[in-house]
Amino acid sequence: MKTIKIPGKNRKHKVFMYTLSTCGWCKMTKNFFKEQDIECEYVDVDQCSEEEYKAARQDILNRGGNLSFPTIIIDDKILITGFQKDKIKKALA
Q: Least C-beta-crowded within 10 Å: which of 10, 13, 64, 84?
């Protein structure tokens, strides 16, 4: 699965996202991390192979999430579905 890195000076937390390349909320989330200078990685699942998409889907479900995008995973523990700026900021505090 091809991940894309958003570089940032803030590397305090491991941030990973499942996104869609055409999703407005996903674009807003990516921009939020860029503006906050927070390093993160993401996968545009709509650009993945069928097998990779199934693996991403299963990972989200195994973590207790639902299939909405963006799905943000912080430090392999916290799962946030959607662009919820306040929840993201609290998780990164």
A: 64
